[in-house]
């Protein structure tokens, strides 16, 4: 629709979107249960924003 399908990689499990050029990932944790945020581990990098 917006012509960005080739620039991003959409994953359904775990739910995340990856920008192909920089490999920056947008993780979606706690969508169904906010208490799952305690067990979220990211292999590389850091968490920039956390929306609750």
Large-scale geometry: globular
* Uncertain residue segments: none
**Tally of alpha and pi helices:** 0
Radius of gyration: 12 Å
- Overall number of domains: 1
Indicate the mean pLDDT. Answer: 77
- Binned, the helix content reads under 10%
User: Secondary-structure element sequence?
Assistant: EEE
In spatial order, strands of the major sheet run 1-2-3
Largest sheet: 3 strands, antiparallel
Strand content: 25-35%
Report how far the terminal alpha carbons are from each other: 29 Å
By secondary-structure content and strand pairing, the structural class works out as mainly beta
Number of strands: 3
Overview of the structural elements:
The chain has about 50 residues and is mostly beta strands. It has one domain (about 1-50). About 0% of the residues lie in helices and about 25% in strands. Strands 1-2-3 form a three-stranded antiparallel sheet, with no helix packed on it.
Summarize the structure.
This protein has strands at residues 8-12, 15-19, 24-27. With 52 residues, the chain is mainly β. It has one domain (1-52).
